[in-house]
Design goal:
Blueprint: H1 2-17, E1 21-43, E2 49-70, E3 77-80, E4 94-102, E5 106-111, E6 120-124, E7 129-134, E8 137-146
Antiparallel strand pairs: 1-2, 1-8, 2-3, 3-4, 4-5, 5-6, 6-7, 7-8
C-alpha cells in the first residue's frame, strides 16, 4: 500500500511540474483562396456554344488561433493549426515540430504539413509576437502562456 501511495505521489508531482510550455496565439491569417466562377453557355457562332469557367486566385484575411506546445526538455513539441489555414485535403490539425530551437529571446521551429509545405514559426519570447509563413497561408499575432493544469472556468 505504501508503495502504491508513493508511486501515485511521484506520478502527480511529475504531472504537475513536467508540463512544458503551452501557448495560445491569436491573430490574423492571410490565406490563398481559389474561386471558380462558371459561366453559362457562351454563344460563339450560330449553333456553336462554349461552356467555360474562370478561376480566380486571391488572398483573404481572417482571424485565427494557433496552439503551440513545447515539452519541458524543449526538445519536442507540436502546433495545432485551424482548418482555415490548412490545405483542403489535410485532415490532420496537429503537427510535430522539427528544427526546434529555443533561445533566451526567440523560439524557432518548422513543421511539415506535406512534402512541399513546411512552414516556419518564429516566436519572440519578450513580446509574445508570433510569425508563421507557409505555402498558401501566413499568420501573425500575439501568444499567451496558459496553464493547462488549471481550468479557465
Amino acid at each position: 500500500m505504501k508503495k502504491l501511495l508513493l508511486m501515485v505521489g511521484i506520478f502527480l508531482a511529475t504531472s504537475a511540474f513536467g508540463e512544458g510550455l503551452t501557448l495560445v496565439c491569436s491573430g490574423e491569417a492571410i490565406v490563398t483562396e481559389k474561386t471558380t466562377v462558371k459561366s453559362n453557355e457562351i454563344p460563339l457562332n450560330p449553333g456553336d456554344t462554349l461552356t467555360d469557367g474562370v478561376t480566380f486566385t486571391g488572398k483573404r484575411n481572417m482571424n485565427a488561433v494557433l496552439t503551440f506546445y513545447i515539452n519541458e526538455e524543449e526538445t519536442e513539441g507540436w502546433v495545432k493549426v485551424p482548418r482555415s489555414m490548412r490545405p483542403a485535403f489535410s485532415r490532420k490539425d496537429k503537427f510535430s515540430l522539427t528544427k526546434l530551437s529555443v533561445g533566451e529571446s526567440e523560439i524557432n521551429a518548422k513543421f511539415k504539413i506535406n512534402f512541399m509545405n513546411q512552414p516556419k514559426i518564429v516566436i519572440n519570447r519578450n513580446t509574445g509576437f508570433i510569425e508563421y509563413n507557409g505555402m498558401g497561408a501566413s499568420f501573425s499575432g500575439a501568444c499567451e502562456k496558459i496553464d493547462v493544469a488549471k481550468k479557465k472556468f
